[in-house]
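Me: I hope this is not a bother. Any chance you could explain this protein sequence and its structure tokens? It all follows right here:
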Amino acid sequence: MAKAYWVAAYRSVSNPDALAAYAKIGGPAIIAAGGKFLVRGIPTAVYEAGQTERTVVIEFESVAQAQAAHDSADYQAALALLGDGAVRDIRIVEGF
């Protein structure tokens, strides 16, 4: 079974306090669901249409595990705290 990667690219952050509240419980919820943070921060370089905004990459054992983490009650509680405090693009991609 191929690993899966949850990739989050933040387009903008309008409420840093909401982002901090989200991260406080969202990170632990993802880890508890089997996620391993590989990348978390601002890019050191961007090309083409890239944006210098926060990027997060999380590794999971499978696509199903990544989806279950996202859909879990604990992670959904974190999303409720984030609200409209950030605009993000989240993708789950299967590795090879």
The chain has one domain: 4-94. The chain has a mean pLDDT of 96. The helical segments are 16-32, 63-71, 73-82.
